[in-house]
Design goal:
Helix content is 28%, strand content 16%. By secondary structure, it is α/β, with parallel strands linked by helices. The longest helix has 30 residues. The chain is globular, with a radius of gyration of 18 Å.
Length: 295
Amino acid sequence: MPLDIAGTPAGSGSGAAEAPYLLSRPERQTVPLVFASPHSGRVYPPSFVAAARLDPLALRRSEDSFVEELFAAAPAHGAPLLAATFPRVFCDVNREPWELDPGMFDGPLPSFVNTASPRVCAGLGTIARVVATGEAVYRRKLSFAEAEERIRRYWQPYHAALAALIAETRSRFGCCLLVDCHSMPTHPVQAASPPDVVLGDAHGTACAPRATRLMEEALQDLGYRVRRNDPYAGGYVTRHYGRPREGVHALQIEIARTLYMDEARIERLPRMAALRRDLTRLVEILAGTDWSFLR
């Protein structure tokens, strides 16, 4: 059984946590919103931990830890919440399905693999070569079969679930706003004036500007310093699903980890409760908004 390296056996009881994602649905979806947390998973398969040259805490540096908890109020306000259970360092669903670094593998890769994207070059493809701190993940070369299994068993089911939620929401309401939820580490470049939140809409191409502005104003009214698209404009999820002309809008939200967690120990801080209350209020505001202009 895979273990949550925070100490909790995954899949205890019902075994639900062994699924690649957890989907929390409202009794009835009443708003054209879908919330997703692709990077907060923390169930680390033992075989992966054994193959890694890093200790469990170092592996967790790439997590958007506890983000699904920050947005847990979404179903109570009529919107589904999808959360990956597996960690991004194991398989990153905010990448194309086949962004792989050829230097990580023990043989040639198929021709359909994207081996030259900027993310691959940075070591942060679908299967990461390094963690957020730049340290190499693995002690050995991987086989393509290992990558293929992760993509088919984790990446594809997560995206199938997300695509289904978006299609269902658009069919029911005539539009959909996907809120892709992340957290961001302390950024040295912004040390003098760091934002609390960064909203990414792929520079206005993935989401109606009015929707981004509504989110921005709601967060500012709650007392948060908000920046747009700098340094995070949105990843694969935002750019792939955000199709405003088709009534589907995607907005990435990055929450500063210093607001709620100890980044070194990867532990919740007492002030996380206040942030969670504010984000619950944000969800409530979004749920009470007339989104018909997104159609």
